[in-house]
C-alpha cells in the first residue's frame, strides 16, 4: 500500500458521510421543534467520520510499513537482521490491530513505530471569522479538537441520550442558544459537517507530510479539501476525561 491508496480509501469512506448529509436535508420537513430522525443521522455521520479517520491512520501505518520494507528490501543476508525485521513487522501489525481509539496520542504512537511523527504537520492558517483576519491553527489545537470529537463519538457510540457540551458543537457556540440548550446540546447538521471537514483537513496535512517522509508523490484528491478546524482556535481546549 502507498499513501495515495490510504487517501483514496479515506475519500471513498467519507462519501458515505456526505450521503448522510443529503439524507438529512431530504428528511427535513421545515417544521419547528426537535427533529429526532435528523439528529440520529447527524450522530451516525459523526461516528462514521471518526471511523474513516481511524481506518486512514491504519492504512497510513500500513503504507509506512511497506515503504520501510521497500527501502531496505526483504531478502536479508544477515540472519540477525532478518529476525529483527520479522519481529518488528509482527509487533507493528499487532499494534495496528489493537488501534481502536484514534485519539492524537495513540495515532502519533502508532505512526512513530515507522519513524513518522505526524504532529508537527497539524498546522495551517484559516479564516478567523467575520470581521477578523486569518488565524493560525497549531498542532495543540488539532490535538484538542481530535479529543473533543472522540469524546462526542464515545457519547454517541455508547447510546448516551445527551452529549458533552463542548465548544466544537454549534449549539454551545451559538450566542442565541438558551442556557438549557448550551448545557444539553443536540447534534446539528453543521456539527456533522464540521466534524467531517476537520478530520479531512487532518488527513490532508498528515498525508502530505507522510509522502515527503517516504519520498512518494503528493496525494491527489478529486477536490482538494480546505483546511478547517471547525471553530476559532481560541476555543479549542482539552475535553473532559472519559
- Oligomeric form: single chain
Given the structure, what is the number of helices? 8
Order of the strands making up the biggest sheet: 1-2
- The assigned structural class equals mainly alpha
Q: What share of the residues does DSSP label as strand, in percent?
A: under 5%
- The mean pLDDT is 89
In whole angstroms, the N-to-C terminal distance is 34 Å
Order of helices and strands: HHHHEEHHHH
Main sheet overview: 2 strands, antiparallel
DSSP strand tally: 2
Over all CA atoms, what is the radius of gyration?
20 Å
Q: Which spans of ≥5 residues are poorly predicted at pLDDT below 50?
A: none
Q: What level of helicity do the residues show? A: 55-70%
Shape, please? elongated
Your description of this structure?
The chain has 242 residues and is mostly helical. Helix content is 60%, strand content 3%. The protein has eight helices and two strands. The chain has helices spanning 3-27, 36-72, 79-98, 104-112, 139-157, 170-173, 179-183, 189-214; strands at residues 124-127, 134-137. The protein has a two-stranded antiparallel ribbon. Helix 1 runs antiparallel to helix 2 and helix 2 (36-72) packs parallel to helix 8. The longest helix is centred in the first third of the chain and has 37 residues, at 36-72. It is elongated, with a radius of gyration of 20 Å. The model has no long low-confidence stretch (mean pLDDT 89).
Amino acid at each position: 500500500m502507498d499513501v495515495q491508496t490510504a487517501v483514496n480509501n479515506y475519500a471513498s469512506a467519507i462519501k458515505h458521510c456526505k450521503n448522510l448529509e443529503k439524507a438529512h436535508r431530504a428528511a427535513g420537513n421545515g417544521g419547528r421543534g426537535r427533529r429526532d430522525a435528523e439528529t440520529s443521522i447527524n450522530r451516525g455521520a459523526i461516528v462514521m467520520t471518526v471511523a474513516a479517520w481511524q481506518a486512514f491512520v491504519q492504512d497510513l501505518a500500513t503504507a509506512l510499513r511497506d515503504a520501510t520494507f521497500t527501502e531496505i528490501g526483504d531478502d536479508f543476508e544477515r540472519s540477525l537482521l532478518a529476525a529483527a525485521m520479522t519481529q518488528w513487522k509482527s509487533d507493528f501489525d499487532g499494534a495496528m490491530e489493537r488501534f481502536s481509539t484514534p485519539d492524537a496520542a495513540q495515532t502519533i504512537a502508532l505512526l512513530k513505530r515507522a519513524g513518522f511523527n505526524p504532529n508537527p504537520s497539524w498546522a495551517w492558517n484559516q479564516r478567523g471569522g467575520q470581521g477578523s483576519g486569518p488565524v493560525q491553527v497549531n498542532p495543540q489545537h488539532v490535538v484538542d479538537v481530535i479529543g473533543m470529537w472522540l469524546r462526542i463519538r464515545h457519547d454517541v457510540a455508547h447510546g448516551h441520550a445527551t452529549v458533552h457540551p463542548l465548544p466544537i458543537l454549534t449549539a454551545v457556540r451559538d450566542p442565541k442558544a438558551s442556557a438549557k440548550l448550551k448545557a444539553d446540546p443536540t447534534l446539528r447538521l453543521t456539527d456533522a459537517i464540521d466534524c467531517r471537514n476537520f478530520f479531512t483537513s487532518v488527513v490532508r496535512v498528515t498525508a502530505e507530510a507522510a509522502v515527503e517522509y517516504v519520498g512518494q508523490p503528493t496525494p491527489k484528491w478529486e477536490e482538494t479539501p480546505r483546511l478547517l478546524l471547525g471553530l476559532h482556535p481560541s476555543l479549542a481546549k482539552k475535553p473532559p476525561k472519559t
